[in-house]
Design a protein that fits this description.
65% of the residues lie in helices and 1% in strands. The protein has 25 helices and 2 strands. By secondary structure, it is an all-alpha fold. Strand 1 and strand 2 form a beta hairpin. Strands 1-2 form a two-stranded antiparallel sheet.
C-alpha cells in the first residue's frame, strides 16, 4: 500500500514551455506573439488553452506506463498545478474532462497515472460546479468511491482529498451526499481497513479528515433526522472505532517507555489532527455509545496520550480554538464514560488547570489573546468566544467527572506519584466549588480530594523526618 512518490500539487512547473505558461519576455506590447496568446489563454490566467487541450487529448493515446514518458508526466503534473486556478477548472468542465479523467483512472493499473488524474479531480473539486457534475452523475461519484479498494497509498490520499473537499465545501441545501454515499457497499469497513492497515501517516491523516467530514456533514450540515439512525447504523461500527485507534497510534507511536509526544511539543497541525480525531469519538460516544462497550480502555489510552504533551507550557500556550475544542471533547468523553479513573490523565488535567489558572491570575488574558506575538498558530487570538474561562471550565468539569465517583485511596495513590503540593489541590477545590456549584456531590468530592492530599503529604513529611 505504500509509495514514496511526492504529491505534485504544490510543485512549480519545471519550465514555462512544458507547462503552457508564457514567458514575460514574449509579451512585448503590440507584439505579434502577444496578440496570438490573448486568444489562446484561459480566462484571466496566462495558461494556454492549446497546451491544456493537447495534454488532455493525449491521455487516451497513452501507451505503456506513464513513467516511461517523462515529458508527458511533466505535462500532466503541470496541468495538475494549473487546476488550482478557477478559470482552468471551468475550462476543463466545459470540455467534460471530469468524466474523461475518472474513466481513464478507473480503467488503469498505472498507480502514478491514477494518482495524477485523481489529484486533478481533487483540485477541481474546489469549485462547486465540479460538485454538481459528480452529484448529477451518480455513477461518476460511485466510480470514485470504488478507489477505496486501491492498494496504492498515493491514490488513496487523492481520493480522501476529493471526499473531504466535496463534503466540507459543497452547499448542504443543494447537495445531499449521504444519499450517494450509502450506495457504496461496505464503505465503513473499507475506511476502517485503510486506517488500521496503512503505515503512511499522510494517508491516515487524510482518511481521518475524510471520516471527520462525513460525520460532520451527515449529522450536522445535512440534518435529516429520519436518516440519522441510518447513518449511525452504517458508520458507528466497532471496525471503524478500532481503525481510528490504530491510525492514531500509527501517527503518534510510543518509543519504549517514552512517548513521541513527550519528546516533541504539539504543532498546529498536530492539534488540528487531534481535534478531528476527538470530535469523531465525541459524536459517536454521545450518539452511539454502545459501540464503545469494550473499547473504553482504548479511548482512555488515547486521551492520556494526547494530554501528556498538551499539559506542557510549550504545547498549551498560546491557546487556540483547537486547544479549546480538544478540552471540550475530552470533557464530553469523560462525562459519557463515568467510573473510569486514569491517574495519568487526572494529573495531566491538574497540570493544565494550574497553567491556565496561572495565566489568568497573572495577565487576565483571554484564551483567544496570543501569548506570543510570533506564534505560528493561525488560530491563536482569532475568536473572543474561546476565552480562558471556557478552557478552565472544561478542564475543571472533566476533573470533577473523573474524581467524583472515585475512592480516596485511588486518588491518594495518584497524588503520591506526582509533584503536586497541597496548595495546588486546595486551589483546585476552590475552583471546582465555583465551577460545579449546585452539584449535590460537590462538597463530598472536594473534601475527598483535600483529605487524600493531606494524607499523602503527611506521610511524606513523616518519611522525611
Amino acid at each position: 500500500m505504500e509509495s514514496s512518490t511526492p504529491e505534485p500539487v504544490e510543485d512549480s512547473p519545471s519550465s514555462a514551455a512544458a507547462s503552457g505558461v508564457v514567458e514575460s519576455t514574449d509579451l512585448e506590447p503590440g507584439g505579434e506573439i502577444l496578440e496570438k496568446l490573448k486568444g489562446d489563454r484561459i480566462g484571466e490566467t496566462m495558461y494556454s488553452e492549446r497546451f491544456v487541450l493537447s495534454t488532455v487529448l493525449k491521455l487516451p493515446q497513452l501507451d505503456g506506463p506513464l513513467a516511461e514518458d517523462e515529458d508527458f508526466e511533466k505535462d500532466l503534473c503541470s496541468l495538475w498545478d494549473m487546476t488550482i486556478e478557477a478559470d482552468v477548472v471551468l475550462f476543463l468542465l466545459k470540455h467534460d474532462v471530469v468524466e474523461l479523467l475518472i474513466g481513464l483512472a478507473e480503467g488503469s493499473e498505472d498507480h502514478r497515472l491514477v494518482e495524477i488524474l485523481l489529484g486533478i479531480v481533487g483540485n477541481m473539486c474546489c469549485l462547486e460546479e465540479t460538485h454538481k457534475v459528480l452529484y448529477e452523475n451518480k455513477s461518476l461519484f460511485l466510480s470514485l468511491c470504488g478507489f477505496l479498494e486501491s492498494s496504492d497509498t498515493l491514490t488513496l490520499v487523492q481520493l480522501m482529498r476529493i471526499l473531504t473537499t466535496i463534503l466540507d465545501k459543497s452547499d448542504d441545501e443543494a447537495f445531499c451526499w449521504f444519499k450517494l454515499i450509502r450506495e457504496q457497499e461496505d464503505i465503513t469497513e473499507k475506511l476502517a481497513f485503510i486506517l488500521s492497515s496503512t503505515t503512511s501517516s499522510e494517508l491516515i491523516q487524510h482518511t481521518l479528515e475524510a471520516v471527520h467530514a462525513m460525520v460532520n456533514r451527515f449529522t450536522e450540515a445535512e440534518v435529516d433526522y429520519a436518516q440519522l439512525n441510518e447513518f449511525y447504523k452504517m458508520f458507528a461500527k466497532p471496525c471503524l472505532i478500532e481503525g481510528l485507534m490504530e491510525g492514531f497510534k500509527q501517527i503518534y507511536p510510543e518509543t519504549g517507555a517514552v512517548s513521541q509526544f513527550e519528546e516533541e511539543y504539539l504543532t498546529s497541525k498536530d492539534l488540528k489532527i487531534i481535534q478531528k480525531f476527538l470530535e469523531i469519538h465525541e459524536n459517536f460516544i454521545i450518539n452511539a455509545n454502545e459501540v464503545y462497550a469494550d473499547k473504553i480502555e482504548a479511548i482512555v489510552y488515547c486521551v492520556h496520550r494526547i494530554l501528556i504533551p498538551l499539559s506542557s507550557d510549550g504545547s498549551l500556550l498560546p491557546i487556540s480554538k483547537a486547544h479549546v475544542r480538544i478540552l471540550v471533547c475530552i470533557n464530553s468523553i469523560y462525562s459519557a464514560i463515568v467510573y473510569h479513573f486514569h491517574a495519568g490523565t487526572f494529573l495531566a488535567l491538574v497540570k493544565i488547570y494550574t497553567i491556565l489558572a496561572k495565566v489568568q491570575e497573572q495577565t487576565g488574558a483571554k484564551i483567544s489573546e496570543p501569548m506570543d506575538a510570533n506564534a505560528e498558530d493561525d488560530d491563536a487570538g482569532s475568536d473572543g468566544e474561546f476565552d480562558i474561562q471556557t478552557a478552565l471550565g472544561e478542564t475543571l468539569e472533566t476533573l470533577y467527572f473523573m474524581a467524583e465517583p472515585i475512592d480516596g485511596l485511588t486518588i491518594s495513590n495518584a497524588l503520591r506519584a506526582s509533584s503536586l503540593n497541597e496548595e495546588t489541590i486546595a486551589k483546585l477545590c476552590t475552583a471546582l466549588r465555583e465551577t460545579m456549584a449546585g452539584d449535590p456531590l460537590l462538597g463530598r468530592t472536594c473534601d475527598l480530594l483535600l483529605e487524600s492530599a493531606r494524607q499523602v503529604w503527611g506521610q511524606q513529611e513523616r518519611g522525611r523526618s
